[in-house]
Every structure is written in structure tokens, then in C-alpha cells.
């Protein structure tokens, strides 16, 4: 308790907490975009349950990984080399996760451009509940490891990491249903979100191979694209309102 009081009185600890909360929330939103796209393909009665399970798994994985911080740090040690480039377990996990994101996003874009017969008739794309949870769990693992290693690089205080993780998961819980409804109601947003997943996947692969990509550039590009899409949505709604008024 005394160490926690000392930590609470340290201004640098508060600065680290604020920065880490922002980073964790951003990574959580990335995770949530994937969860929303996957769960929107399930029957209506299963979507909310799948989202809660997906976010719950993200919380459990992050807290479990925090309990093994000393081991997680060693995941950054090279275990073998490819073409003279040393790869660690973290690198391989990031590369595998990035490849999965690229495959999944490309597949979803293909389905959007060339729907299956049952989708053309207005039905949802077939996806089993277990398959959806399995895909969510895989990406939860990738984002959780990236999240914890990012946290370790920013602070050595586990309580700060725990608070940041809880804050990020709280934001995910609050934003899950509204974000999913917004994505489902705006088909063009689905394509934009899939484009975000491709960008995130490429970033994970680049990070895995040791090419550091400043996340500020990535998220600035995503924010700019999202802003343009918001203007498109407002423009479409204004035109629809004018047509109705006419």
C-alpha cells in the first residue's frame, strides 16, 4: 500500500499513465474494429454475446500476460535468423497476426465485392459462433502481446499497466455495440474498416521484421480517412433529406 501511495504522488507516474491509457485505448479500438466486423456476420441474437466474449477474452489475456511480464520481456530475444535477420517469438507472433489480418480483410473485401448467392438474397454470410470466437481469440492474443510489450517499454510499474488495460477494455465495452451498429448501418464504413485492418496487418508484419513504423503516422492516416468518410456520410444524408423534402 505504501508503494502505491508513493506511486500516486509521483507526477511522472501520472504522465506515464495518461500516455499509456491513450496507447492502450488506440490498440483496443483496433481490436474492436476486428471484433465488430466478425460479430456482424453472426445471427442477430448471437452478436452481442460474441462481442462480450471477445472483449472478455481480450481483458483476460492482457491481465494474464501482465502476470508474466518478466517472461514476456524475453519474447523480444532473437531465437533464430532468416537472411541474417534475428527473429524473436514476439516478431513471429506479430508477423503471423499481420498475415492473418491481411488474409481476413482481403477475404472480407472479396465477399463485399462479389457476395455469395445467399448474401445476394439478403442473408448474412455464414459464420459459426465457434469459428468467430476462434478468430477473435487469435487476434486478441496478437493485440494483447503487442499491448503488453508496449506497456513494458513505457513504464516498469505493473499497477499503471493494469489501470491502463482496464481503461482500454472499459472503452471497448462502452463502444462495442454503437460501433458495431454504425458499421452495419454504413456499408462504406465496412470497406474503410477493412482497409484499416489491412494497414494494421502490414504494420504488424513490418514491426515483426524489425522495420519500425511510427504509430503516429498510421493513426493519423486512419483518422484522416475516417474524417473524409464522415463528410461523405453527412453529404449522403443531406442529399437524402433534400430528396425527401422535394
From TrEMBL:
Transmembrane annotation, as ranges: 12-34, 55-75, 87-106, 127-152, 158-176, 188-210, 216-234
- Major localization listed first in the record, in broad terms: membrane
Annotated signal peptide: none
- GO terms for CC? membrane
Q: Which Pfam families match?
A: TerC (PF03741)
- Which topology term describes how it sits in the membrane? Multi-pass membrane protein
Subcellular location as annotated? Membrane
Against InterPro entries, the record matches this protein to: Integral_membrane_TerC
Spell out the family assignment given in the record's similarity comment.
Answer: Belongs to the TerC family.
Protein name (record) = TerC family protein
